Fold:
Amino acid sequence: MKASFFQFLSGKLLEYDGNMYFLSQISSSFRYTPFQHFFDLSQYLVTMKKLLTVVAAISMVGAVQAQEVKGDAKAAEAKVGMCIGCHAIPGYRASFPEIYTVPLLGGQNAAYITAALQAYKKGERKHPTMRSIAASLSDKDMADIAEYYATQTSATTINKLK
Structure:
């Protein structure tokens, strides 16, 4: 079928499988222009709106996660009671579920302690006792405990049971 250039520009013809069809042969309920054949503006706007919504949501989640919880060493003094039973004994080795040398926490980096506690809470670290203790701690508790131990040195007398 030969189509005139004018018929093509006016949107009265549609090319399908190499053949030209008049829209009246396909459906008379909508108008199909050559521009819409290549680019559907309404669908583009819907897609862009969804994309921008997802990007905004992700950036808000990132902003919330970026807010670091600040630890308070003084507040942790009442919370470290469960820690000193194992982490305050020099050379202590736990024997359940396997023999494990328990580290002393005094002077350890606060970010490391917090990350370790979060890993136990998520199940990324496997020691069952530490997993159950970490599961009971809030992010604020973890930050407080981490700050408490990070401020200690070998000469610290605040808690002789480091």
Remarks:
- Strands lie at 13-16, 19-22, 93-94, 100-101.
